[in-house]
Amino acid sequence: MTYHFNTFQIEDDTVFYSSEFSYAFTNLKCFRPGHVLVCPKRVVKYIDELSWVEQKDLVETVQRVAKAMLEFYHLKPSGVTLTLQDGKGAGQSVPHVHYHVIPMIPTEPTSHSKQYYDLVKSGNFGPVESLKP
To answer: Taking every annotated instance into account, which residue ranges of this chain make up the domain HIT (predicted)?
Structure first.
């Protein structure tokens, strides 16, 4: 499959998770080690341009990636930062809806990134439903 982040073609080997309407990929401009992006497959500038089904899928993908990140990096209680900048005025640099999923790692990892991406791909960290309170 060909993935696009606005006008940029995303290389398949950087996509580590894909659902029906969304995908997650490694970020070329990382804020911190492990920083990834999750976006809808359909290129839209604002989140309200997505259907409810697409929005639900996007958030579920964000949850799946964040949960895997928490487990892989053992981040509780440190956590994961989830950011959506909806429009240029909010700081959106690429006009394609996307979430930043950023691990708040107490000590910077050395070579764990590939293992983390493999964990997300495998789905061996439990279903999204397990995230419900």
So the answer is: 3-111
* Predicted TM-score (pTM) above 0.85: no
CA distance 128 to 90: 28
Fold of 3-107: HIT family, subunit A (3.30.428)
List Cα–Cα distances, 13 to 18, 19, 88, 111, in angstroms. Answer: 12, 16, 29, 17
Instruction: For 102-131, write each residue's pLDDT tens digit.
Output: 988 766 544 455 555 565 556 554 443 333
Q: Which of 35, 98, 100, 112 is catalytic?
A: 98
Residue 91 and residue 94: Cα distance in Å, rounded? 9
Whether residue 98 lies in the annotated active site:
yes
